[in-house]
Every structure is written in C-alpha cells, then in structure tokens.
Amino acid sequence: MSYADAGGCDIYYEVSEGDPEAGTVVLIGNLALGAWQWGWQYTALAGLFETIVYDPRGCGRSDAPPGPYEMRDLVDDLDAVLQETNTRRAHLVGCGLGGCVALAAARHTSRAESLTLIGTPASGEAFDASDLRADPAATEALRASTTALLSTDFCAAQPDVVDRIVEWRSKEDASPAAQQAQLAAIEGFDAEPLYELTTPAFVVAGGGDSVVDVAESRRLAEELPRGEVQEFPDSGHLPTVERSAALNDELVGWLEA
Q1: Residue 78: which of 97, 43, 45 has the closest Cα?
Q2: Could you tell me which CATH number the domain at 2-256 has?
C-alpha cells in the first residue's frame, strides 16, 4: 500500500502501469465520495497513461484529521502525491470538490498540464452538497443520495449498479465529520478571476446535475480562456458513471490532443 505524507496526514494512492511518456493523469475525488467513483475512468485511462488515483483526506484509506479543512490542505494532498510519485506536471481530472482542487492547483502551483472539470463550480456559492452527503453507516440514506446524483432513467435501467455503488459508499465514503470538514474547504473557495487561468480546460456537465447547475458549468467554460464544454443532457451529477463510455471517449481524445 502506498502513502504520501501531506504535512503529517497520510494520503493513500495507487499508480497504474500505463505509459508515463504519454503523460500522467491524476483523478481527484468529489466531496464525501471514496475512490470507487473513478472505477469507470481508471480502467479506460490506465492502459494509455500513467494514472494516479488517491483518497482525499477524510476518505477511504487516507487519514481524516479534525477539520475544518481549507482548500490549501486539499491542494497539499495532491502535491504530496505528485512529489511521492516524482511527477512534475499532470493532467488533473476532478469532479465537484475535486474539480475545485484542480482549479486551485492550476492557480497556485505549476503542476497542471490540463484540467478536466466535471460538475465543478467556479466558487463554493454555486455548489449544493445536499445530495452528496450521507452517513456511510446508513444504507437508506446512501441509496437516497446515490439515486439523487444519477438520473431517474439510469437508476431504473441499472438497479444493480445502484446497489453496488451503495455498497462501495458504505466502505469508502467519508464520515459525517470528515464530510463537514471537506465542505468547509469548498465553502470558502473562489476561482475568480477566471481569465487568469490559462491552463487548457475541458468542462463536463450533466443536464440534470443537482449539485452544480449546468448553467454554472457553461459559464465556467466560457470564462476560462482555454475552456471548452461537453454536456450530457440526460445525466445527473455523475456522468462518470451513467455516461461513462461516451465520457471516456471524449476524455481520452482530449488528453491525447
């Protein structure tokens, strides 16, 4: 098991056997959610790129120090993983809170080769965490949260996937206290002014996203100097799950370009 030391906080990470010459991709997780959330993308990316996935502080196998956390803490987690893996620059792929971490890293460090921002706001004011937060020990609360993050059609067509996600969340998601600590980081977040962020950015939006409104994703793509947007009108907050095949194709094409 591999850990990076972020100022005394142990951050668990995994690295694929992909080709580092093709570039390194780092998957940065959402508020409350464990590394399970990247299972669909990790498989698609790991054979093409060196791919790193890690548990942010508070989730999975990483430490959960007392909060509140600041965005600087979460950027330090990312930086510690990159230092431990001898990675100078990487393509940062983040969802929700993870996208905010990527934006903050692009502003305050020289680590970001590109940004992929899935269901990501420009500020904490545009982030509604209600549907993300659930106690991992409460199965019905996890199920209600999971179905709220996905479209009704997907949940009806793929009930077995919903069941598996609920099981994974019970094992990997952050505790209520750690969720509150993570939420503090995003509540104080503001990426403005966006025109200063010149890193290439691929913005992904679900038309039915209840956490970050699709209009906010459009604005993010429009105001980032090198931003472009891909919308999945029939998806909720997690196109990573319900539109994984289409999203993976778009993501690989973006990263290769």
Answers
A1: 97
A2: 3.40.50.1820
